């Protein structure tokens, strides 16, 4: 993204010289001769870097005072001090107040450009490190090899490099924010901020402050909203359906004209922001109920994406469960655990109303609370260790014990019951894939088909292993 540099100097020749040097290198510039003008430009344009003269003639504030004000409002913007009358004391003073570096006039253009490049790179790395700390431990990619997830990742890879707005829908806990972060990471804005506004947790009377910020008055610093903090980057409006109607109208205008005014302010502030919105509600129903503006919907849903629920892709559950077990073991220092086949079958039949979030929490609980065997050996997590609500929908084989009803049956009936339940579990394990199931149970594909027909395992059960226990519920 193009960097904008604010030049503050009372000498017109110096401003003209700096503008020429920087614009020849592809930077965009704004210039000011005194403090009032500099403050207005700083607040309106949010520069990537400031070049600031220490001695400003006919100005309310000198360079050191401006430096303090800028650093109070924007600690992460690097400021390069320049002066033709500098001393060691003034240089040390400016560095002590947070300046990135100090250059004496007259300066060499090559040295100036090197320092500017270093300052911008240092600011970028600082922002990147802050972002990495913020998302440390968070899942950063959509996992799963199902057709639904492969299609979603392909859609993300196509839309990410564009600047189009994206509306990501899907149930709570399915991974909508992960999808949004993937879009940002694969976009041309990936080195710029990724800012999240959680509309579901914000009080209605604070929305506009958080979105647009508050203009500083009477010595108070300006407080930036999320639109400013996301400048040149990506703004995620999480659960956008919870945004108040009045605020919806104002953000429609901001998206349309790409400018806004802070609360209490009179100057227009530009906002170069890519907006991604998420929702777990049906926005068409919200529009019909007059709880969501239709014009905002069409501005946000330029490219609609849907994250499937976990129940829609049961074949992804084994890999996800193992991943969460492993990552939790690493972060907690606990021994790694495996999941038995019957436990996986139970996980694949559960409906997961909390989706990925619920699965992750359950795996963490199992790692901590499930009986682990002897001190020198860690047993797999079995189906009977899972909560009843998770295992109750699985084929009864996953719940067999010494008193199971199969023990009271004649041999032929017991064998048929065992084979039926065994094949149901294996079909579930391989997502209803006949070829993979036949290979695992060491049968010819045609022989497995005949056996399933003989045992009365339905076509629906073959095509969707996750529903194979539906007749038993």
Automatic annotation (TrEMBL):
<keyword id="KW-0902">Two-component regulatory system</keyword>
<dbReference type="InterPro" id="IPR002197">
    <property type="entry name" value="HTH_Fis"/>
</dbReference>
<dbReference type="InterPro" id="IPR001789">
    <property type="entry name" value="Sig_transdc_resp-reg_receiver"/>
</dbReference>
<dbReference type="InterPro" id="IPR027417">
    <property type="entry name" value="P-loop_NTPase"/>
</dbReference>
<feature type="region of interest" description="Disordered">
    <location>
        <begin position="454"/>
        <end position="473"/>
    </location>
</feature>
<dbReference type="InterPro" id="IPR003593">
    <property type="entry name" value="AAA+_ATPase"/>
</dbReference>
<dbReference type="Pfam" id="PF02954">
    <property type="entry name" value="HTH_8"/>
</dbReference>
<keyword id="KW-0597">Phosphoprotein</keyword>
<dbReference type="InterPro" id="IPR002078">
    <property type="entry name" value="Sigma_54_int"/>
</dbReference>
<protein>
    <submittedName>
        <fullName>Two component response regulator NtrX</fullName>
    </submittedName>
</protein>
<keyword id="KW-0804">Transcription</keyword>
<dbReference type="InterPro" id="IPR058031">
    <property type="entry name" value="AAA_lid_NorR"/>
</dbReference>
<dbReference type="Pfam" id="PF00158">
    <property type="entry name" value="Sigma54_activat"/>
</dbReference>
<dbReference type="Pfam" id="PF00072">
    <property type="entry name" value="Response_reg"/>
</dbReference>
<dbReference type="InterPro" id="IPR009057">
    <property type="entry name" value="Homeodomain-like_sf"/>
</dbReference>
<keyword id="KW-0547">Nucleotide-binding</keyword>
<dbReference type="Pfam" id="PF25601">
    <property type="entry name" value="AAA_lid_14"/>
</dbReference>
<feature type="compositionally biased region" description="Polar residues">
    <location>
        <begin position="464"/>
        <end position="473"/>
    </location>
</feature>
<dbReference type="InterPro" id="IPR025944">
    <property type="entry name" value="Sigma_54_int_dom_CS"/>
</dbReference>
<keyword id="KW-0067">ATP-binding</keyword>
<dbReference type="InterPro" id="IPR011006">
    <property type="entry name" value="CheY-like_superfamily"/>
</dbReference>
<keyword id="KW-0805">Transcription regulation</keyword>
<feature type="domain" description="Response regulatory">
    <location>
        <begin position="4"/>
        <end position="120"/>
    </location>
</feature>
<feature type="domain" description="Sigma-54 factor interaction">
    <location>
        <begin position="142"/>
        <end position="368"/>
    </location>
</feature>
<feature type="modified residue" description="4-aspartylphosphate">
    <location>
        <position position="53"/>
    </location>
</feature>
């Amino acid at each position: 993204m193009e960097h904008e540099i604010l030049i503050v100097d009372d000498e017109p020749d110096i401003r003209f010289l700096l503008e020429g040097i920087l614009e020849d290198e592809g930077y965009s510039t704004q210039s000011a001769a005194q403090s009032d003008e500099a403050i207005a430009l700083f607040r309106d344009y949010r520069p990537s870097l400031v070049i600031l003269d220490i001695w400003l003639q006919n100005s309310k504030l000198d360079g050191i005072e401006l430096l303090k004000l800028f650093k109070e409002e924007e600690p992460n913007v690097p400021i390069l001090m320049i002066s033709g009358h500098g001393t060691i004391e003034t240089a040390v003073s400016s560095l002590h107040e947070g300046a990135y570096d100090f250059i004496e006039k007259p300066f060499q253009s090559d040295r100036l450009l090197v320092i500017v490049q270093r300052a911008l790179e240092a600011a970028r790395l600082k922002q990147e490190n802050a972002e990495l700390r913020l998302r440390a431990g968070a899942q950063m990619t959509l996992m799963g090899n199902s057709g639904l997830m492969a299609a979603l990742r392909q859609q993300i890879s196509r839309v990410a490099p564009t600047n189009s707005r994206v509306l990501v829908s899907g149930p709570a806990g399915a991974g909508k924010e992960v999808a949004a972060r993937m879009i940002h990471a694969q976009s041309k804005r990936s080195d710029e901020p990724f800012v999240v506004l959680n509309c579901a947790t914000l009080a209605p009377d604070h929305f506009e402050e958080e979105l647009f910020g508050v203009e500083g008055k009477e010595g108070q610093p300006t407080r930036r909203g999320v639109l400013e903090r996301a400048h040149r980057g990506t703004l995620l409006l999480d659960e956008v359906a919870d945004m108040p109607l009045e605020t919806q109208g104002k953000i429609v205008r901001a998206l349309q004209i790409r400018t806004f005014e802070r609360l209490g302010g009179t100057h227009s502030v530009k906002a170069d922001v890519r907006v991604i919105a998420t929702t777990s509600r049906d926005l068409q129903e919200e529009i019909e109920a007059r709880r969501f503006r239709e014009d905002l919907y069409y501005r946000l849903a330029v490219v609609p994406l849907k994250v499937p629920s976990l129940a829609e892709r049961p074949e992804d559950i084994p890999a996800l469960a193992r991943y969460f077990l492993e990552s939790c073991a690493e972060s907690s220092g606990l021994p790694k655990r495996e999941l038995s086949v019957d436990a996986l079958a139970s996980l694949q039949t559960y409906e997961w109303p909390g989706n990925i979030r619920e699965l992750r929490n359950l795996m963490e609980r199992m790692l901590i609370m499930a009986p682990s065997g002897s001190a020198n050996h860690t047993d797999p997590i079995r189906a009977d260790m899972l909560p009843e609500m998770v295992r109750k929908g699985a084929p009864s084989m996953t719940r067999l014990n010494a008193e199971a009803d199969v023990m009271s049956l004649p041999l032929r009936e017991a064998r048929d019951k065992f084979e039926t339940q065994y094949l149901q579990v294996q079909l579930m394990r391989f997502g209803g894939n006949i070829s993979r199931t036949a290979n695992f149970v060491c049968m010819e594909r045609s022989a497995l088909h005949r056996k399933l027909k003989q045992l009365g395992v339905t076509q629906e059960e073959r095509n969707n292993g996750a529903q194979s226990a539906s007749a038993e519920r």
